[in-house]
Amino acid sequence: MRSSNRNTTRREFIGQSACAGLGMTGVMSALGTLRLFNSTLSAQGIPAGDDSKSLICLFLFGGNDANNILIPRDLASHTTYAAERGILALPRETLLNIANPGGDGREFGFHPSMTQLQPLYEAGKMAMVCNVGTLVAPITKAEYKAGGAAIPPHLFSHNDQQVQWQTSVPDTNKKIGWGGRIADHLKDLNNSAAISMNVSIAGSNFFQVGNEVQQYHVTPGGSIGLTGSSYTWSPTKEMFAANENILGRSYGHVFEQEYANTMNRGIENDALLKTAIAGNPLPADIGTFPNSQDGEGNLNRVAGQLRMILSMIHARNALGMKRQIFFAALGGFDTHDAQLTDHAALLGQLSSAVADFQTHTEQLGIGDKVTLFTASDFSRTYNSNGKGSDHAWGGHHMIVGGAVNGGRLYGQVPILQSNGPDDTGSRGSWIPKVSTDEMAATLARWFGVAQSDLPLILPNIGRFANPDLGFMQA
After folding, report:
1. Residue 473 maps to a domain
2. Which pLDDT score is estimated for 102?
3. Which residues have a Cβ under 8 Å from the Cβ of 435 and sit 6 or more positions away?
4. What pLDDT score does 241 carry?
5. Which residue of 173, 358, 429, 440 is surrounded by the most CB atoms within 10 Å?
């Protein structure tokens, strides 16, 4: 058993297959299921017009230092920034200038490694949501310092804040993600699909955990399945025949039956996905991600994931999908040490891959149907620990796509002053002015969730003032 690009153990195959579909429990052969699926599509057809939408969460694991993504550029503000950040400060002349219509008078620039993203922002295809983070409810510095006000538990813990970002319910122990709740709510839009609305290219995550719709795992190289089943020589032929007999049996023990169901779901979904993508390949001039390649033509980590996502979006009609939610990730942002070099390299990967991806969606004519957003554990302290920065709270995040009201900063950039009015203490850990709920609600509305149904997706949204931040077109 192996995927298209690496060997896969039985344990890995079962783990990835366990979340492979919408709870199908049949034990049909993969080919039988594929014939049934294709005949269903032929009978129902894909509705006229293309009202499909795809939402991509790109999670930056480790806590991205947002203070060096969006940097004050006017002389007075940059002078203060340089004094506060110390060795982490970037020279003013290296910053990539951006517009800030309707801002507070401060000028800002992007990190110099974001050279491919700056033109997207200037073209109105990218926005920044500023000082967003996990919140139980709005909170002021006075309330935070006094104690007693509700704050997210384990505020500076990687694992806890990752879960809270992805579930949007920091005040409960529930591990159902807001992407999973969207998929549960809108699953009927994919009424002819046999593959989950929620597809992860980066392993298990809480964002896509639903009550009904589960996440389907694939790799940047494709889906995982069994290979060699068509071999005609012995003993391989007999081995696969025996395997099919084992998986095709009915079992009285619940665990034995679920094992067989899980294996069959993985085999069936692998055949469906491979057939759909092979029948709808990306055009030769699309999918190369030219800015994301190294000297040997290899894609960086983010670009490899986004290329697979692009292939699945391109095959959406063959898969019978009007809504798709994807999860991709880039790690390495826990920059306690060597931050200047490490962070620049990570942002370079991110910038080139996201810009290439957006370019290709436009070439395919789906630029306004695809929206990508970033998320991360938390931001990092404004002042340095001597080599890097430490865990903090509110940060800035990117929204990219043709349906974005871009070229603007949304939310509120904090007062960038350690021990200032927006700091939890004395190191520059910003109290969020925008909740993850508000950012998620704005994306959910674009994706097709009715205003009245937002509490089903985001149970705490009623505690916040702005369920639509305005960064998405209607």
Report:
1. no
2. 85
3. 132, 133, 134, 135, 138, 460, 463, 464
4. 80
5. 440
pLDDT at 43 over 70: no
Task: Establish if 133 belongs to a structural domain.
Answer: yes
Query: Which residues form the domain of 334?
Result: 2-36+53-463
Q: Measured between alpha carbons, how far is 343 from 388 in angstroms, rounded to an integer? A: 10
Question: How does residue 49 score in pLDDT terms, banded at 50, 70 and 90?
Answer: low
Query: Which of 10-24, 81-95, 315-329, 343-357 is least confident?
Result: 10-24
pLDDT value at residue 229: 66
Residue 173 in domain:
yes
Q: Flag whether pLDDT at 298 surpasses 90.
A: yes
- Chain centroid, CA 183 distance in Å: 14
Q: Each residue of 433-467: pLDDT tens digit?
A: 999 999 999 999 999 999 999 999 999 999 999 99
Domain count, the chain: 1
State how far the alpha carbon of 443 is from the alpha carbons of 99, 289, 308, in Å.
23, 26, 22
Q: Residues 6 or more apart from 358 whose CB is under 8 A from it? A: 120, 125, 367, 372, 400, 401, 402
Q: Are 49 and 364 in contact (CB under 8 A)?
A: no
Of 405, 429, 390, 409, give the one whose Cα is nearest residue 109: 409
Nearest Cα to 118, choosing from 108, 105, 106? Answer: 108
Strand-strand pairing, 96-98 and 198-200:
unpaired
Closest CA to 384 of 412, 350, 343, 413: 343
Amino acid 147 reads G
How many Å from the N-terminal Cα to the C-terminal Cα in the chain? Answer: 46
Burial (Cβ within 10 Å: 0-12, 13-18, ≥19) of residue 250: exposed
Distance, in Å, from the CA atom of 271 to the CA atom of 251, rounded to the nearest integer, reads 24
- Residue 409 φ then ψ, to 5°: -100, 130
Tokens in use for 395?
């940060």
Query: Which phi and psi (to 5°) does residue 270 adopt?
Result: -60, -45
Q: Which residue type, as a one-letter code, is found at position 69?
A: I
Question: Does some domain include residue 399?
Answer: yes
pLDDT at position 239, please?
Answer: 81
Burial 107-130 (b: 16+ CB within 10 A, else e): bbbbbbbbbbbbebbeeebbbbbb
